Amino acid sequence: MPSFAKTIRTLAAAIGLAAASLATAAQAQTTQCGVTGSATASPAVYDPFNPSGLATTNITMNLTRVNNSGGGDTRIVNFYLKANSSTGTAADGASIVPTAVIGQASIEGTGLNIFYNYNTPPPTLLPVTLSPSGSSRFLKINFTGNNAGSDTVQVVFTVSLPANLDLNAVQNLAFDAYFGCNIQGGQSNGREFSGSFENAVVFPVTVLSALRTYYAGTALAFGDISTVPPVPLTTIRTNPSNYVFVQSSGAYQVSLSSQNAFKMKRPSATGPNEEIRYSLKFLGDTRDNTSTPTPGAVAINHSCIRAGLATAGQQLPIQATLQEGGQGKNPGIDYQDILTVTITPLAYTVAGTDDCGAYTVP
Questions:
Q1: Which residues partner with 320 through β-bridges?
Q2: In terms of residue numbers, what domain contains 233?
Q3: Is residue 12 part of a domain?
Q4: Against a cut of 0.90, is the pTM above it?
């Protein structure tokens, strides 16, 4: 009763590059008040598969108010943060909490998470006299002075990320800011403005290119084929529901090889009478001993786009088809081949070329 055994070998490595702090532009061109800023911190590393997530990281932002040409200056700024459109809901659950301000300014909203999930209704920021609260979370900065020494303050934030965020592998995390502000003095005294700006805050957090993978299903087995003629009269295949499961924050590489070049053999097989040929379909490619006659050679190789970290991930179906039966072969239950599937995360700069989760069998 020949059977088909399988071995799936997985390789889940993490690739990360150091991230430096970047200056942030925090003023829309159409506004007459606002702030500009830059964030500094020791680079942090986020492994999306670490059950602890990203431990709390302190980040300091230097915020400088915009003083317009009409003689007035920015006096009060209310703002909150959310993910940009390229990140979307993937950052939901992040926490960005202001803890202190250093400089000639008063602040409200310390201790509040001013990051909003992508589809969460935002707080009301105007009029600027509004104060933040647990149900309306934003940071309120009142630049109390009217001289140049009052133009810049430092705000300290604590940033943390929960585990399993479906973030792309990147070197820095950028968030958009939404604000309301007013002007004191000059021609625009008392006027209020609102707006938003992309990538207002860029945090030096590297999201690793990492993956998690496993084989799901049963052994790739044909069952008892002792009575199947040398040329099968009907198609005999393994279960079509077997697959390799992948979750990844970035692109990944998949390769497959066959120890016996797509032949099931008895141990110490002495010739064709103790081997049974089959073909294998995986990632849209069909391989057999004719296409890949060298034992152990890489038969299938794909560069795949990111699978994502959602529960569904990507399923890579795998199925074998019998090419010759067991009738007339030396009897035994130990005919087998070993398949080796190697899955490797790629560097965050590599996008991948194939949507490997879109392939089907047979």
A1: 280
A2: 211-358
A3: no
A4: no
Domains in the chain, number? 2
- The single-letter code of the amino acid at 118 is Y
Q: How many whole angstroms separate alpha carbon 202 and alpha carbon 241?
A: 43
Q: 130, 142, 27, 132: which is closest to 77 by C-alpha?
A: 142
Query: How many residues does the structure list for the chain?
Result: 362
- What contacts 24+ positions apart, CB below 8 Å, involve 293-300? 293/261, 294/261, 295/258, 295/259, 295/260, 295/261, 296/257, 296/258, 296/259, 296/261, 297/257, 297/261, 298/255, 298/256, 298/257, 299/256, 299/257, 299/258, 299/262, 300/254, 300/255, 300/256
Alpha-carbon gap, residue 175 to 80, rounded angstroms: 10
* Token reading at 95: 């926490």
Contact status, residue 314 vs residue 252, Cβ threshold 8 Å: no
CB of 101 closer than 8 Å to CB of 153? yes
- Asked if 57 and 191 sit in the same domain, the reply is yes
Spatial distance between the Cα atoms of 79 and 34, rounded to a whole number of angstroms: 10
In this predicted structure, what is the pLDDT of residue 31? Answer: 54
CA distance 38 to 36: 7
Q: List, in sequence order, every residue forming a beta bridge with 333; answer none if it has no partner.
A: none
In a domain, 9, yes or no: no
pLDDT tens digit sequence for 93-143: 999 999 999 998 999 999 999 999 999 999 999 999 999 999 999 999 999
